[in-house]
Design brief:
Layout lengths: L1 H8 L4 E4 L1 H9 L5 E3 L7 E9 L15 E8 L3 E3 L2 H9 L3 E5 L10 E5 L5 E4 L15 H10 L5
Parallel strand pairs: 1-8
Antiparallel strand pairs: 2-5, 3-4, 3-6, 6-7, 7-8
Length: 153
């Protein structure tokens, strides 16, 4: 993780999906933590999420309020953070996406957050599983980053 932290701190783009989100929180690259689902059950299903900000490299081709359907598959996907940390997330527009129908008990329905610099993004839903014949909503995450990198004009 030392090289990942160094890369992120130098402005490199880092994405953590599901367990990767947990690792980003545990490493200190993102605030908060991931805990067991309130139901204590593993959840695997498609869920509707809402884009809370499009001012990130990960969501720049979306609009605030857009709804995507992305799959989740986790037993420890409940995002938790103390009130002070939550207020910081709000103040810095770090809440990237929320669940419409919170499946796991995440605080304030949070499904994904970024760091203050917006180059580190962690999310529980799996956009990579919604980028093929089944669904294309995940492509909005990948194409946002490609646009930010200049790979898509």
């Amino acid at each position: 993780m030392e090289k990942v932290i160094s890369f992120a701190n130098s402005g490199g783009f880092v994405l953590g999906i599901c367990n990767g989100f947990q690792i980003l929180c545990e490493s200190g690259l993102l605030p908060g933590a991931l805990a067991k689902n309130l139901s204590l059950n593993f959840i695997c299903k498609d869920v509707p999420i809402k884009i809370e900000t499009n001012e990130t490299p990960w969501t720049n081709i979306t609009k605030k309020g857009d709804r995507l359907t992305l799959p989740i598959a986790h037993g420890e996907g409940r995002f938790v953070i103390d009130e002070e940390g939550y207020q910081e997330l709000l103040k810095n527009s770090q809440i990237v996406m929320t669940y419409e129908n919170n499946p796991n008990g995440s605080l304030h329905d949070i499904a994904g957050i970024c760091n203050k610099n917006k180059n580190v993004f962690g999310l529980m839903p799996h956009p990579e599983r919604a980028s093929d014949l089944r669904s294309h909503d995940g492509l909005k995450i990948w194409n946002s980053l490609k646009t930010r990198l200049g790979l898509i004009p």
